[in-house]
Amino acid sequence: MMNSMNNIIKQIDDVLTITNSEIITNRQFAIDINSGDVHQSLAYLKSIGFTQLSILTCIDLIANNEFQLIYILNNWELGLFVIVRTIIPRDNPAFVTIINIFPGAKYYEREVHEFFGVTFEGNDSYSKPLLLEIWDDIPPLRKDFDPQVYSDSKFPKRDLDKIYRSKIGGVD
Amino acid sequence: MVLENQDNRNLWEKIGDFFSANSIWMKWYCTGCGAIELPPTMTSRFDMERLGMGPMATPRQADVLLITGYLSSKTLRRVIYSYEQMQDPKYIVAFGSCTINGGIYYDSYATINQLDKYIPVDLYIAGCMPRPEGIMNAFADLITMIKKGQANGWRHYQENYEWYKQNQLDSLKEVIIHDEFHE
Questions:
Q1: Domain count, chain A
Q2: What is the pTM of this model?
């Protein structure tokens, strides 16, 4: 298994411009790619057998003022997962859609737009609401969104005489 | 707001309550993990039908609405929609600590914290999640309450409709459901 994965990584490294690669488990490896190369990289990976887009998601790296987009592709024949990671700026985050490579990304892109505010040029429906209805605040999975403040302002709480809290790891 | 418990039913209402207490059809709204406690309650191990309770497929023919767990603001719209479709008399049983005070997702941006602000709850079952014994116990209590005329949340909803509606609008902005697959 390890051997075939190393071969695949080498094969990918010869063709694509990878800034970094990392082996995570014996069936998973990650590659970091510049945001400009993502589309041709995904098209190439699809052509060598990574035919399924398992998920497209996003990580808010607020300390670096960046978003990281994560594409996880699955190769059914080898049982391998590749995690394609790319960095986009956090201010006015915008990216180009991949629905012409993986049509199922349409809904993932809607979800990423809803929870992180990333726009996807070329996907006509990216701005439609998917899970949230009538949302009126900044996207809720950004690190600077405070769910407690939002919940307090929106949903009334029961008045309790005493609130019992369990201690987790020595912290109240 | 406390639901009052005085008994000022006339004879026909008492007879009606006696009969409806003995044949309860329930509709459960499976919003959370609580739904998994219902199959053992319904099937041969605990067998709720010996109390006279049966499952019902649609809200229009059901007497009891079971809220089995978390309600997000999205599902609360559907619950209100289902509840308002039901015929009187109708009862709500709310499951678990999540409907009482928000449970472990008390600070979530999406889950509501106190269900009885939005719809009248006749009976709460505490626990996370309540076991089938707790559910059976609650059903027995609900039957007693209906026989005594104490389960009058539906009347409370009619009389305080503006109060409930205002709370719903404060939290949800709009109760009407906009759904891309149905428009």
A1: 1
A2: 0.84
